[in-house]
Amino acid sequence: MKFKSLIIAALVALGGSSCNTKQFLDINTNPNQLPTSSPNYVFTNALNTTATNIAGNTNGQGSNELGFYWAGQWTQGNGYIIVTTQFAYQFTNGDFNYWDGYYDNLQDYQYVINNADANNQKFLKGPSKVMKAMLYQQMVDLYGNLPYTDALKGAAVLAPKFDDQKAIYASLITLLDEAIVDLKANAFSGSYGTSDIAFGGNITKWVQFANSLKMRILIRQSKVAGSDAYIKTEINKIVTEGSGFLTGYEASIGGPSFFQPAAGQLNPVYDRWGYDATGAKRALNNFPRPTKFLIDGLKAAGDTLRLKRIAYAAGGENGNTPGVSTKAEIAANYVGTPFGASSGYLPANTSSVGPSLLVKGDYNRPYVLMTASEVQFLLAEAKQRYSDVTLPNTAKAYFEEGIVQSFRVLGANTAGAAAFKGSKIENYDFDSSTDKLAAIAIQKWIALTNFNGLEAWAEYRRTNLPVTPQSIQVPDTKRPTRLFYPNTEAGSNVANVTAQGTVDVFATKLFWDVD
């Protein structure tokens, strides 16, 4: 593993117990000097880095972006030469290296865990363990087996062994249990809550986020043979713990109290695909385009309220009226781009990523890590698969609430969700849907659009739903099932990478991808 000397922005000689955001983002650090850092500053920086690693920014693509493409939600605008790594699946171990950034970020959280007690900041251990669990879950879903028990030990272990991916998943449940114990025992004190740019020091919300992540990890394994008893036992433990789940709000990073209208200090999504600090449109604003499959499906179901939040009408956002399309916002003006199309679908005549994600001037929107809608669909699937778990509501109730929460987070009128009850529309009306698990999977896919591409791609691999079209660039039916180990790891940890055997990114499936 690539060893990281603990170089963390905004950590040198920043005494005090709170975090001044503008000062934090303005700090420069000598990359050749190992700083002595207060855990609260490391924690704030780690959260900001997590958002950037997942979302990307002007420096490069984040992991979520690839997920949006390979889940069939986004494709490429035709104002560019087609990117064959993404849309023809012509990639190698030199492409899509999220590994190094994730492990550097994990090292930050581990630093906080290791140093919180000595600095009288025990309240940071629980949140850091939650974030560590989330990042490792995403890493497993990208790469499979990877360093876990030997990882994050700095110079003590420069070539860590790889752990089995299924064992890591089990360890993450234990880690989240530990996090919850730490959280309940150590409330944020004084002004230290300002260092928590996720939940502002709210312990209850951190515990609910931890429980929600546990549900994600457990349900991801629901098709693995012999896992039912384990999954049901763990779900019942969550219910017994009693704090509940993300409900009516998202797990998110930053927001108006953190992101600033200055270069390098914007919400990372806004910075990558939206506008710069002066309001000038980024060149990449025309790159990601909602797919024809996505837009046509929403129109066919009469799901126009969400459509108008997921996408702008053809021609994009009206620069003089932020958040509103240039063309009239009627269904006929929403035009998707076929996945992988390289010509015929220019920005002027196709829809772009919509106001649920990008609005001119809205540079300080929180960056969403997990939505309440996703959680409701996880609960719906749990209750549908395991009717005897102690979750209090029915699968139908969780399903319908998932749609409501999807409307809410998109910024659509939640009253519109009620129109689908009793509508007889397949995969929208729970009672009329012939395959309840398919309906849950498809609604979750819609709800993840614009918010969590990684989860959408992982769920697509797990459920094979929805049945999205193959890229126009690909002559056969093969699709990626995972990523290669990056060449940086192969170069520094060759024996342990070699021990994983030959990776075929079209055939070497992850342990939870069983069909």
TrEMBL record:
Keyword Signal carried by entry: yes
Signal sequence segment: 1-21
InterPro entries: SusD-like_2, TPR-like_helical_dom_sf
Keywords annotated in UniProt: Lipoprotein, Signal
Keyword Secreted: no
Protein name per the record: SusD/RagB family nutrient-binding outer membrane lipoprotein
Organism: Spirosoma arboris
Taxonomic path: Bacteria, Pseudomonadati, Bacteroidota, Cytophagia, Cytophagales
